[in-house]
Amino acid sequence: MLSEERNIESVALSGRETGRLTDPDIRDEFGLETMDMNMGPQHPAMHGLLRLILELDGETVVRCDPVMGYLHRCQEKIAENRMYPAVIPLTDRLDYFANMHNEHGYCLAVEDLLEAEIPPRAEHIRVLMSELMRLASHIPSIGFLLLELGAFTPILYSFRERERIQNIFEAVTGARMMYHYIRIGGVKADLPPGMEDQIWEYIEGLEQRFTRDFVDLIAGNEIFVSRTRDIGKMSPEKALEMGLTGPPLRCTGVDFDVRRDYPYSIYDELDFDVITDDAGDVEASYRVRIGECLQSIRLIKQLLERMPEGEVMGKVGRRVRPPEGEGFSRIESPRGEFAVHIVSDGSDTPYRVHYRDPSFANMQLLQEIVPGHYLPDIMPIMGLIDPVSGGWDK
Amino acid sequence: MQTVLNLLEQEPLRFILAFGAILFLTLNLAAVLTMAERKVSAYIHLRYGPNRVGPRGILQPLADVFKLFTKENVSPNRADRWIFLAAPIAMFLPAAVVWLVIPFAPGAVVADINVAILFFVAVTSIGALGVIMAGYGSRSTFSLLGALRGAAQMISYEVPLILSLLGVVVLAGSLSFVDVVEAQAGGFWNWYFLPLFPTFLAFYISGLAEVKRVPFDLPEGESEIVGGFMIEYSGMTWALIQAAEFAGMGLMSAITTTLFLGGWQPPFEFLDLGQFNWVWFGLKTALIMFTFQWIRWSIPRLRMDQLMDLGWKVLVPLTLVWLVVVAGVMLIV
Q: Chain B contact for A379, CB < 8 A?
């Protein structure tokens, strides 16, 4: 039984230096061994089902190996056997804290294949939903960071906001998490009557509450600062080398945002700033997320002000049969760059779908920067990456 | 009837009865405190908290205790069974025993021993042993880490705790809790938290660390080592550990009250309730307990090295300096 377990582990770690697993006699000058510790997959701070194989020297982490795959659902393979519109509900299950972004990214890739025209109102609603989703993802991620540092209260405050945004989504789409709202060619339905005022009212309220609940209560706290400053510190070169995107990249000072640098939908017509920070540690990522929330609020207000009238569904047939070729899209999800690549063979099912999920790509950070930190520092570093289980295990 | 009363006059029997009563009170205090903890946290979180069992949920502790009694007591296969089962008792008993020397009201103290402060220090340090036993006996990496953290933390913070006690001893000139409370008579300006304010803060912080509350709950560390030394416990053994934690918290509040807030002394002379002065004791203890809970739900947890820095580099020098200052002033006056 034990040897079988070892085998599974070595398969999971194949092609990598596995340290203690292959050489059990590593001892330091005092004859003391390091301790192996298995964190997860069932662990409250592992953002879902992540397993970390840690080698500890006292409380210091010597080696950190993330093992993924506990939530793998063959998303890309299933997509090959479904008709194009039927893949959209599957994308909801990818990164379940950024459902709207996944739908948006997939639909953009199919529309790239079809070269479809999207009505302006549909574009506005799509971006509106994406920005609300970004708020519903960034605010809880601040709460999670604090939860992992041992403060329980902020998570409840942040979920109160997420709850209200989910109420908006429920009114608009009929579902609270798995929306299936953004469709190929537009969106499923127009906003219900009075919805724009309701969103405006909520955003106004949030703007007032935001600084009080998520900045004043947290940012200056001595313990919060001492637990996050200089933790997970990395240089911009390192971040680029590891292929990071999203807040983990921007917190090192690299000015990159897909919304501005490769604009999709109507982002090039909107006015917003890309938030960066120079510190490149956990505290900086917190500040970046706070700044992005405020930018999202700004974007939502602009969208509501300029919301055009008209159709919400373009002229795309019920049966989607794109021509042979390749479709590609990249969007800025709350966690970083989410890209979809579709290869079509001219039939009504995709030949191949590939998702580039930011949670998966940003996860490389763990192996690189965790060694040398103390064991409790893993938690804020997880908060810096803020991965989602459904994202890294497609 | 008379014979029963005569029997009660006898010291050993009186002591056994009193100890039973104290044990009963401690367990009940723990149950009430779990409830208070949940209600206070709910208030801070803008929630309702438990409100289903009984009016406003006040019977929730009963339901919890019943649930824990009926749960299976699982011990891991590779655990060191005796150490594993003895650890909760080793944690709970010290927290209960110290209540014996605390004066609740004038004359209401089970054992007025003349070295009560020493007794308190000696007995509470057994609690660290319980933590080590629990962590070592469970044979899990998580609980081992928790136990090592717990041992390091509780032993380190014993130093500022004792040093801050010394200030009180210097002022009161006695090691007996009864004498310390008597010395603080006559209005709140005579309570020791004013002349010994830095020491009072150091004692409060070390007390928090000693009972393993946030921000010093590293041995538990629920987000990194998921419960630490108590990760393998379930059912009644787990309940006993929880009871020990809460009783320890109650105890630390009671000791803080006795040493620095005048024990059962009323804040003003005219509010003296005579035998009923235990009301003042209860109110002050409850206030300290509330601040413990307030802190618990407001701030994050420190890291081990930061904890050690705070203990050795801030609290120990602070208490030492203030001890010298107080002793010098006492010498001159």
A: yes
> How far apart are the C-alpha atoms of A213 and A215, rounded to whole Å?
6
Chain B: residue whose CA lies nearest to A231: B303
Whether ipTM tops 0.85, in short, is no
Within 8 A by CB and 6+ apart from A71, the residues are A48, A49, A389, A390, A393
Contact B312, B155 (CB under 8 A): no
pTM of the model: 0.83
Q: Are A375 and B223 within 8 A, CB to CB?
A: no
Task: Using DSSP, state whether B160 is helix, strand or coil.
Answer: helix
What's the rounded Cα separation, in Å, for the pair A319 and A348?
Answer: 8
Other CB atoms within 10 A of residue B317 CB:
13
For chain A, domains (ranges, CATH) are 2-67 (no CATH), 75-392 (1.10.645.10)
Across the interface, whether the CB atoms of A153 and B44 are under 8 A apart is answered: yes
Give how far A37 is from chain B: nearest CA, Å. Answer: 6
pLDDT by 10s per residue, chain A, length 394 = 344 444 444 444 443 444 444 444 555 566 667 788 888 788 877 777 888 888 888 788 888 888 888 888 888 889 898 888 889 999 988 888 888 999 999 999 998 888 888 888 998 999 999 999 999 999 999 988 888 888 888 888 898 889 999 999 999 988 888 888 998 888 888 888 888 899 999 999 988 888 888 888 788 888 888 888 888 888 888 888 888 898 989 989 888 888 888 888 888 888 888 888 888 888 899 999 999 999 999 999 999 999 888 888 888 877 888 888 898 999 999 988 999 999 998 888 899 999 998 988 888 888 888 888 888 888 888 888 888 888 888 8
Instruction: Please report which helix (H) or strand (E) contains residue B140, including its range.
Output: none
Which CB contacts under 8 angstroms, 24+ apart, belong to B108-113? B108/B275, B108/B278, B109/B177, B109/B178, B110/B15, B110/B18, B110/B19, B110/B22, B111/B15, B112/B176, B112/B177, B112/B178, B113/B176
Quick check: B224 and A378 CB within 8 A?
yes
Residues 6+ apart with CB under 8 A from B198: B318, B319, B321, B322
> Alpha helix locations (H) across A150-252?
153-173, 195-210, 222-228, 236-241, 247-250
A-chain CB neighbours of B298 within 8 Å are: 151, 153
Tell me the β-bridge partners of B271. none
Could you give the 3-state DSSP secondary structure of residue A33?
Answer: strand
Phi/psi region, residue A254 (left: phi>0; alpha: psi -120 to 50; beta: rest), is beta
Q: Look at the block and give the residue holding tokens 């208070």.
A: B36
Q: How many Å lie between the alpha carbon of A150 and the closest alpha carbon of chain B?
A: 5
With beta carbons less than 8 A apart as the criterion, state whether A384 and A251 touch: yes
Roughly how many angstroms between the first and final C-alpha of chain B, as a whole number? 55
For A2, A15, B78, the CA distances from A5, given in Å and listed in that order, are: 5, 18, 18
Interface touch B300/A151, C-beta < 8 Å: yes
Structure tokens at B289: 């307990």
- Distance (Å) from the alpha carbon of B124 to chain A's nearest alpha carbon: 26
Please name the member of A37, A59, A376 whose beta carbon is closest to the beta carbon of B141: A37
Domain boundaries, chain B: 76-332
Residues 134-153 of A with CB under 8 A from B: 146-153
Q: Determine how many CB atoms are found less than 10 A away from the CB of residue A313.
A: 17
Chain A, window 196-215: residues with a beta carbon less than 8 angstroms from a chain B beta carbon: none
